[in-house]
């Protein structure tokens, strides 16, 4: 990212790179009342502190989801905490919401580039007990609301102890009711989405669907990383050495698509869904959209395929 930033400041090279990254087949997508320049966005977890927005816009992304951000800065889990599984085109991460805190993010968002849709992905600090988790979400929501186009509640990362317990129906219902009440104070009503795990059984998905309907959750992002290690080509001894963490990339593709199809079937043709997990090619992007996603986000594909991936996905 640093090298690309330097390259984009060199006269001549700058204009060539901009034109080479720009998709020729980018069609705007109307989603939750927002006009996205194209269907491909960068998932949360890459630009945790909103440092790279100008560069990511130059790479052709239609939107970038910054974060996950927490009220206070935190270091995250001990290193090493990010690993490539090359035979599987996958990553394992246990970053643990490492970020500089919501105040630092807001200062950067005040200088965000025009023409890029930015979402804010919010979480809780590791030291905050689950009984007080709602306060962390409300704090981040209030700080970010004026500076982003939409917000996402993250209760599905496997790398903060106990976080996935917050996918509980009672907690989510209370949280979204409170967030909607807070939003009513503002003149502009921005969408609030929920990001869910791929590891939910059918009963858990049914609970999410029920919560969506009862508490008017406006959109879902499906899905986060998985804790499953089924069907991997990477040697078992290597996986044991790496240890815990969320798995992303190609191995998540089929399961995340199953979740998408189930949500689309039970929430109707028009319900707003964002598809994430294992998108590397234009064919993958089309499959996600056929399975119900209006927007697609990438992360691991960006790492493996490189900075021309948005153009490749759209053209």
Note down, in words, how this protein is organized:
- The protein has 315 residues and is α/β, with parallel strands linked by helices.
- It has one domain (39-314): TIM Barrel (Alpha-Beta Barrel).
- Helix content is 36%, strand content 18%.
- It contains twelve helices and 13 strands.
- Strands 3-4-7-8-9-10-12-13 form an eight-stranded parallel beta barrel, surrounded by four helices.
- Helix 5 (133-144) links the parallel strand 7 (117-122) and strand 8.
- Helix 5 (133-144) runs parallel beside helix 6 (169-183) and helix 6 (169-183) packs parallel to helix 7 (202-215).
- The mean pLDDT is 96.
Give the helix/strand class.
alpha/beta
Major sheet: arrangement of strands: 3-4-7-8-9-10-12-13
Indicate the CATH topology: TIM Barrel
- Rg, alpha carbons: 18 Å
Percent range for β-strand residues:
15-25%
Cα-to-Cα separation, first versus last residue: 23 Å
Unreliable segments of 5+ consecutive residues: none
What's the number of structural domains?
Answer: 1
- CATH H-level superfamily: Aldolase class I
Output the CATH class name: Alpha Beta
Assign the CATH architecture: Alpha-Beta Barrel
Largest beta sheet, briefly? 8 strands, parallel, barrel
Could you tell me the mean pLDDT? 96
Could you give the order of the helices and strands?
HHEEEHEEEHEHEHEHEHEHEHEHH
User: How much helical structure, as a percent, in the residues?
Assistant: 25-40%
Shape type = globular
Counted beta strands: 13
Note the total helix count. Answer: 12
């Amino acid at each position: 990212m640093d090298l690309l930033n330097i390259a984009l400041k060199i006269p001549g090279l700058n204009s060539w790179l901009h034109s080479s990254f720009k998709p020729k087949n980018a069609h705007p997508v109307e989603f939750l009342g927002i006009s996205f320049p194209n269907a491909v966005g960068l998932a949360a977890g890459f630009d945790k502190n909103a440092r790279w927005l100008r560069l990511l816009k130059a790479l052709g992304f239609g939107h970038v989801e910054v974060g996950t951000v927490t009220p206070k800065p935190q270091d995250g889990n001990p290193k090493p905490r990010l690993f490539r599984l090359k035979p599987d085109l996958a990553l394992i991460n246990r970053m643990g919401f490492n970020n500089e805190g919501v105040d630092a993010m807001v200062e950067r968002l005040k200088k965000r580039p025009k023409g890029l849709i930015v979402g804010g992905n919010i979480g809780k600090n590791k030291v905050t007990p689950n009984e007080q988790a709602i306060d962390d979400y409300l704090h981040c929501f209030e700080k970010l609301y004026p500076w982003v186009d939409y917000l996402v509640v993250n209760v599905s990362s496997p790398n903060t102890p106990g976080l996935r317990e917050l996918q509980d129906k009672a907690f989510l219902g209370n949280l979204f009711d409170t967030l909607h009440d807070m939003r009513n104070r503002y003149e502009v009503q921005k969408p609030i989405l929920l990001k869910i795990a791929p590891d939910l059984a059918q009963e858990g998905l049914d609970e999410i669907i029920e919560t969506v309907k009862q508490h008017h959750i406006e959109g879902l992002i499906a899905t986060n990383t998985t804790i499953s290690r089924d069907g991997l080509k990477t040697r078992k001894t290597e996986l044991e050495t790496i240890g815990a963490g969320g798995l992303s990339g190609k191995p998540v593709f089929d399961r995340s698509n199953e979740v998408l199809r189930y949500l689309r079937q039970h929430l109707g043709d028009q319900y707003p869904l964002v598809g994430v997990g294992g998108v590397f090619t234009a064919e993958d992007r089309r499959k996600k959209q056929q399975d119900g996603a209006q927007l697609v986000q990438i992360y691991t594909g960006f790492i493996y395929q490189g900075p021309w991936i948005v153009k490749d996905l759209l053209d």
